[in-house]
Design a protein that fits this description.
The complex is a heterodimer of chains A (211) and B (679). By secondary structure, chain A is mainly alpha-helical. Chain A folds into two domains: 113 residues, no CATH class; 59 residues, no CATH class. Chain A is built from seven helices and one strand; from the N terminus they run βααααααα. The radius of gyration of chain A is 31 Å and the shape is elongated. Chain B folds into four domains: 162 residues, no CATH class; 240 residues, no CATH class; 120 residues, no CATH class; 109 residues, no CATH class. In chain B, the strands form two sheets. In chain B, strands 2, 3, 4, 5, 6 and 7 form a six-stranded antiparallel β-sheet that branches. In chain B, α5 packs antiparallel against α6, α7 runs antiparallel to α9 and α10 runs antiparallel to α11. The chains are: A mainly alpha (211), B alpha+beta (679). At the A-B interface, β1, α6 and α7 of A face α13, α14, α16, β1 and β7 of B.
Amino acid sequence: MKRFPKTNGYECGAGAPARQRQTSKEFPTKKGSRLASVSEGRFFAGGGARATLSQSRRLVQAFILTAAVLLFAGAGPSTDARFKDLGHRMMCTCGCGQVLLECNHVGCKSSDKMRDELMAAIDKGDNDDLILQGFVQNYGPTVIAAPTTTGFNRVAWIMPFVALGAGIIFVTWVVRAWKNRPEPALADGITIPHGPELDQFRAQARKETEQ
Amino acid sequence: MAQIGSFALLLALALSGYSFGAGLLALFGRDAASARLGETARRAGIAAFGAVVLASFVLVSAAFADDFSIAYIYHHSNRDLPAAYKFAVLWSGQEGSLLFWSLLLAGYGFVLRLRYKTDQRLFAYASVIIASVQVFFLLILNFAAHPFAIEQGGIPADGTGLNPLLQYPEMVIHPPMLYLGYVGFTIPFAFALGALIMHYPGEKWIHITRRWTMVTWCFLTVGIFLGAHWAYAVLGWGGYWGWDPVENASLMPWLTGTAFLHSVIMQEKRGMLKVWNMVLIFATFLLAMLGTFLTRSGIISSVHAFAQSSIGTWFIVFIALTTAVCAYFLVKNLSNLKSEHKLESLVSRESSFLFNNLLLLVVCFTVLWGTFFPILSEWVQGHKVTVGPPFFNRVAVPVALLLMLLTAVGPLLAWRKTSLESLKRNFLYPAIGSIAVGLMMILFGVKPWEDPSYFYAVVAAILAALVIFTVISEFVRGGRVIAGKSGQNIFAAMFQLCRRNTRRYGGYIVHFGVALVIIGILGQPFNKEVEKEMAFGDKISIGPYTLVCQSYTQDDNPNYANEWAIINVFRGGKQITTMYPERRFYKASGQPQTLPRIYPSFREDLFLVHDLYLVYEGKNETNGRPIIKAHLNPLVPWIWIGLIIMVFGTIVALVPNYVPVTVTATVPVRETVHAGAGD
């Protein structure tokens, strides 16, 4: 009987003691930093006319930044959440075509190694962009699971919405054009009711068919 | 055996070639000689079916006879492969699956050629077009991907075995279903192109192909969902759709086929969209061919793809040629497709169909764009990029939600014009009900403002509920009218309603099934997973369950060795089941395979049902402890229930309408009958 090799798992390092890892959806990722930067933008935008105003602004700014740091420091993404988030933004490079954390191929050396590297990078304190850049350097651009939003890759994201927008405009134009077409000519003596008269006939037809 | 198979393939090519050539010649003449020639072409087409059946039979027989002198059998079978999977050998590799394609096409062609009396001229055109597609596949089979090629260097003692991923019961059904769908779209395509070429008057070709199209669509739907279920039940990652290029390839013709099924209603009812319907069915056929090409060319990496081969060039030429032929005849005969497009109102069933088509095509374009963007990127930037699930989820999901909104609203709109009052009357209660569903989700702790995936889940739930409520309200409203007139109870009246207009109400049932599928998908953001090395007696807690490892065991048979865990599942302190997640090691191919075990919680949770999904991942090499991964996947079972309802709806739509027959008969009235006796 052949022994089956150990496969994936989030373990970092051989001989890890028995452990349990639980993951479920966790949210706040960059919320804190985003809010903080918005606050900064607002305060800097109107600033600098008078010294006192400037000082008080700085005080308020410092207060808000401190509050933001205190507020969001504890709510920052946990290591598990970051691991899960980043692991779902990368592909396994073994050729299975699966997202890194979803590759469960037996004895897949790529995903085991990549997971270890990802966990090590998170433990080291690198930010998300730096971690992703590191993986791109090591494994090439195909390691990222979706096109970036820079350069030509932006086209990938834009085109479907351009198609949707163009399609909506076209269909709306077609519908309007069809609606505004003149009525077909009728033989003498035949008239088609319009407006309230037509609505009255419709209401009568509905009444007769639904009762 | 190989010689018989090879001969059968050559014979099939000759017969199909004759069916095409003679059929084409016969179409040019209208005299008796042309009619006789056309008849020989028809019979050749029927005989070609026999030859392809013979070739397929020989290949399957070779698998059962373990004839490893045939290279295909050597590479896709082995002596200890169970009998059911020896059938699956036919479609498990490049050459065999092409033969299977050809077999199904020959089968469809056989049925069509037998029913030629419906409209001899139109059927003759369709027969020639089908024969041309058949010739293409048989050329590949005879000259590029020969299934009866002889294994070089002597006859091996045993084969290398069937891919372990394919050794699963659903794999015996999934590819045939998918292929029936792919191949089946050749029929409406052939009729459409034939009708276009021969300036066929009226919409009769649509009536003739309506059932073909619906059956084909149903096969493709079942094929796609079986594939998703197979991925869920076999691949062991807890998901069912990975936006793999080959999955995408099957989705694209489904999307255009769905658009076609809707827009032909416009042509039938209002004589509109004649050109558009032609374009849609051409696109559907070409996308089905593109899907076949993607799987076989090796231009896009995919777990589903067959080995890279030269047949990609054949497909490119065929697709280009077919596109050119379709475009030529479409432009040439555009004047015959003139229709009187006149709309009375923007708020009408016609408008909703147009927007429905638009959204389906935008989703199709997104999938096509995402699938081919890596190639485009390589051309432009010099390197490939990956377009994986994050892209498709972010781009296609919002459009799909808009489509759900239309699915809910569309049936409530009347043809020509819908008054605001009527819309309000039909829409009010379903809208209130669906908003209540959204509010309930928020009350139960789903906060859409905290995460985009939660936002999408709430919106999807609201829209799915809206579809369900509008479908129910349509049935109830119609049922009440009939009940009021006939005195039947409401359920009998609804059944009667359905029988009177099977297509309409069958369609509503399909919409109902789609809504259930969406409900199944929207549970994804709430998935949980736990992974643990489990010794005897160790526990895992996940959701309401406690999993206790009772034991491990192993077994061995000629095909594979396996080991599995015995996990007792407790809920609320009570044992509810025992699960056996398994791992196999296939001896012939030397490949391991995970077999997850799934427990749907129907008995405990009626509506908020979920799957408990256990995977035996292997053993920690260091300490020898087995690793178990448990997933809790909410609502997933609704996806499979939704599929069953979609199939049921399609079957209902295929049933002819019940038309009450009025028979006038003279009945002698006996004077002795007392008044009121029959009351």
